[in-house]
Amino acid sequence: MRRAQHNRIGDQPWVKWLLVGLTLTLAVLLLLVPLVMIFAQAFSAGVAGYIENLSDSITLHAIGLTLLVAALTVPLNLVFGTALAWAVTRFNFPGRKLLITLIDIPFAVSPVVAGLLYLVLYGNNGWVGSWLSDYDVQLMFAWPGIVMVTVFVTCPFVARELIPLMQQQGSEEEEAAVVLGASGWRLFRKITLPNIKWALIYGVVLTNARAVGEFGAVSVVSGNIRGETNTLPLHVELLYQDYNIVGAFASASLLAGIAVLTLAVKGVVEWHQSRETVETPSDRTGA
Amino acid sequence: MTSRQHSVPQSSGAPFGGRLFGSRSKRVLPGFALSLGISLFFVSLVLLLPISGLVMETSGMGWARFWQVITDPRVIESYKVTLWTALAASLFNGAFGLLLAWVLVRYEFPGKRLVDAMVDLPFALPTAVAGITLAGLFSQNGWYGQWLAQLGIDVAFTPLGIVVAMSFTSIPFVVRTVQPVLEDMAPEDEEAAITLGATDLRVFRQVVFPAIWPALVTGIALSFTRSLGEFGAIIFIAGNMPYVSEVTSLMIFIRLQEFDYAAASAIASVVLLVSLVLLFSINLWQARFLRRLAGR
């Protein structure tokens, strides 16, 4: 009877509170404090100083360029990620597993290497770049190059969110709809889309977070021209190296804000997914 | 998205066409040609073409020069620094990640949801922002740096700073691989062992650990792979002293700034090869481990 309320290990109060205490301490020191510090530094010159730091023309240009890059990258990767997830979860074909592994390459490759891959190919002395420069097309050290490497770096996110979910859901509903005569587009909109909606939203949010925040790959191909090819993360670096620490953190706080929003969306998505799991137990659980 | 509409007549009218490809069932659904076509086009253009461009670039430089560049003493020193710091960071994350996963799965406590959400912060936060933040915290007069300085520990501008940056950016990997496995563990084995009088530590070693170690290894390997390539978070805190705190991705960056594209490509090809080998090994390892789980 002594063991009655102790049937799993680590349930004794002292073990539990020791481990929880250690976790909370580390989580606060390694995760929460850094986040708080960004905003503390950003506002260290007061709200007026914060606004002033963000409203100079070079910062505004960096914000605009960053938004442009995200606006071009996200839709491209949304189409690609959805198409890839549909192909690999709804059909069997030779090389399917290889394809799933290939899209993880950007996760494994160093951002600097990613930038270099594009610079070597599309730069003025590059294989494709030298041909393009004959037509006066300059991709590297200009905004198109930034978009290209950002597409590379962020292309796995949507597919990675969709594939496990679509695999788990199976295709019975969709097959039934086809048998009943639904057309392809209608099938996707009425059956598939509602099922994958939340994962798709989270995939887009993750793609966006990484697209606005990419640093290594972008700094290789951007050329860092102030007010021209400077994205927000590069701008943060420039300000920091100019010893304008408060300005650097003011710009960084915008990026940190997007990160916090991303985490909030993840929370909402998981909450919806777990609710759907309760309604239909065959669905997968969150995470 | 509108191009999808385009495929409708052709593919929904051809449920038999799929047999041409000779694979099993599943070809009832429309959109095979379209979705695979987009995927292959994209993968070839975005991933494979640039990688083959790198192979072309390095193959043009000749073996002797290639070897000389990748075995330059300063570059060799950067490999060493990168490898040991990435190893230290991923082992730290193995321990911290296991602790986090265990606590989040097994216990209820105030702030649990917040901690669970915060775990993903390093993935959502841009690396440059992480870099300047950590550099600020650990600098001589930073919130952490001033305390550590009294203990005689210097983090900023030393290889230890690299470990800190790598650890931070790869915190989520171990947690998110171990967490689902812990959640799925049935309590019966554990209960039986406890009833038979085994101590908690022994139950953990002999019942829990055998179930979670493949996921733990996967998480550590992912964390290691990520750390090897990390750049943004590191350069602000490392001090970047040649032969001391210079990581390999920075080495590539420096060669690029010297406009020595060939040398940069040579070093990058070494890094790329290592990351691809790691990626394929992790995927094979996961496939084997998943099959074993399914077979039980």
TrEMBL record, chain B:
It is a multi-pass membrane protein. Gene3D superfamilies: MetI-like (1.10.3720.10). GO terms for molecular function: ABC-type sulfate transporter activity. PROSITE patterns: ABC_TM1. It is found in: Cell membrane. The chain crosses the membrane at residues 28-51, 83-105, 117-139, 151-175, 231-254, 261-282. It comes from the Bacteria. InterPro entries: CysT_permease, MetI-like, MetI-like_sf, Sulph_transpt2. CDD domains: TM_PBP2. Pfam families: BPD_transp_1. Its main location: membrane. Residues 79-282 form the ABC transmembrane type-1 domain. Keywords: Membrane, Sulfate transport, Transmembrane, Transmembrane helix, Transport. The complex is composed of two ATP-binding proteins (CysA), two transmembrane proteins (CysT and CysW) and a solute-binding protein (CysP). Belongs to the binding-protein-dependent transport system permease family. CysTW subfamily. This is Sulfate transport system permease protein CysT. It comes from Marinobacterium iners DSM 11526.
